[in-house]
Design brief:
alpha/beta, Rossmann fold, 3 domains, 14 strands, globular
Length: 429
């Protein structure tokens, strides 16, 4: 745990260091490139090899896909309480997404000219659902559930199996309810490669969405161009802006919620105007961490990823948050809405002490697939629009095009593109 005191001289280098945190350890890229190359070359044979190497499960290509009877058996194992949670969260996410479905539109800016946009759902998308350190049931809802709302006809989910080749029953039930059409028990880099390149038994997709560890993130980055991506994200992170009205137990609990994800590269950051709060939160973190099942993973974050940033006022706190651009930004201040209005970059903003980050992770409505490592300054979280193809539409009458042919001629001359000019000239008169 480290304190950065912005009220004193000499703080800028350490602050800049966390502003410019890397999305992933760079040494991973070389190993990922070799795995992807082998998948592209050898297809199913490479998937068999890497499933055994990385997930310690022996599979044949015929066993990659989860069969309908296994999905039905899994459903029977899920408690009514869990089903209610999954179905309720799915309804909330679908409802939010329905508000944002893009609509075709047109307008006529000049007589005889009609311009606009059309939106058509993608045909086949891939959803990556992490399962190595925890079965992220909610990720199914926050990816596949949105894709189904968009009208995507083929939703392909990949998630790692355990050593017995099984996928967590709640994950399978959520996939069924969210509209997944194909489920493959594949994980990590090799699952991303299968979605991006296709193999003998798995058809390639058009876009890959969903969070993952540093290896999955590196794989997504390297297959970009072969498929579309939601974003290139890194380990999870939370920043909390708090003043002296904040409850230390609330702050500590929420900081721990992201530290437990398991990679050790997560960050939990408190930005506050109150030095007393720092001491009280630190005591709460130490006390609460000992009671958690993932305390070992949290220890790594305590060593390298927990920061307390002292600022002069809440305007400075908002400026720090805008530079950091956290995946999750909580605001626990007396006037939280006013502070939120000053935030310029964040994946999602949680306003007020009664809006904990896990409510967004699980059931609020917006997707929990969000930009990390400062990429919130130029990427946004996953939304239903991300599952559509946007097409501009242009229509001119014979009379309307005539006044603009001189423009075509001028640009064709400027750019040395004779055929472009010819295309305009043949339409004169």
């Amino acid at each position: 745990m480290r304190i950065i005191d912005c009220t004193k001289a000499g703080y800028k280098p350490e602050l800049e260091k966390i502003f410019n945190r890397p999305a992933n350890p760079p040494e991973i890229d070389i190993a990922v490139r070799e795995i992807l190359s082998e998948i592209e070359r050898d297809g199913d044979a490479a998937l068999v090899k890497f499933a055994e190497k990385f997930d310690h499960v022996t599979l044949t290509p015929a066993q990659f896909r989860v069969a309908d009877d296994e999905i039905a058996a899994a459903e029977a194992q899920v408690s009514d309480e869990w089903k209610h949670a999954i179905n309720t969260a799915l309804a909330h996410v679908v409802s939010f997404s329905e508000q944002r479905i893009p609509k075709e539109w047109r307008y006529s800016p000049r007589p005889g000219v009609v311009l606009g946009e059309r939106f058509v759902p993608m045909d086949r998308i891939g959803v990556y659902v992490p399962g190595g350190t925890a079965p992220l049931v909610s990720t199914v809802i926050h990816t596949a559930g949105i894709a189904r709302t968009a009208g995507v006809s083929e939703i392909v989910a990949v998630t790692p199996a355990n050593r017995e080749g099984k996928v967590h029953p709640a994950v399978l039930y959520a996939m069924k309810m969210a509209g997944v059409t194909e489920i493959y028990r594949l994980g990590g880099v090799y699952a991303v490669g299968a979605l991006a390149y296709g193999t003998q038994s798995i058809r390639k997709v058009e876009k890959i969405v969903g969070p993952g560890n540093a290896w999955v993130t590196a794989a997504k980055k390297q297959v970009y161009g072969r498929v579309a991506l939601d974003m290139v994200a890194g380990p999870s992170e939370i920043m909390i802006i708090a003043d002296d009205s904040a409850r230390p137990d609330f702050v500590a609990a929420d900081m721990l919620s992201q530290a437990e994800h398991g990679s050790g590269f997560e960050q939990s950051v408190l930005v506050t105007t109150d030095p007393v709060l720092v001491d009280r939160v630190r005591c709460e973190l130490n006390a609460r961490q000992k009671r958690l099942s993932r305390s070992e993973a949290i220890e790594k974050v305590f060593a390298n990823g927990v920061y307390f940033i002292l600022v002069r006022d809440l305007n400075e706190a908002a400026a720090v948050a805008g530079r950091y651009a956290p995946e999750h930004l909580e605001i626990m201040c007396a006037n939280a809405e006013a502070v939120a209005d000053n935030i310029t970059a964040a994946g999602a903003i949680f306003i007020g002490e009664w809006t904990p980050e896990p409510i967004g992770d699980f059931c609020a409505g917006p997707s929990h697939v969000l930009p990390t490592a400062g990429s919130g300054r130029y990427f946004s979280g996953l939304t239903v629009e991300g599952f559509f193809r946007r097409m501009s539409t242009l229509q001119y009458t014979r009379e309307a095009v005539q006044p603009e042919l001189d423009l075509v001629k001028a640009f064709a001359e400027m750019e040395g593109l004779d055929a472009h000019g010819m295309s305009g000239e043949v339409r004169r008169g």
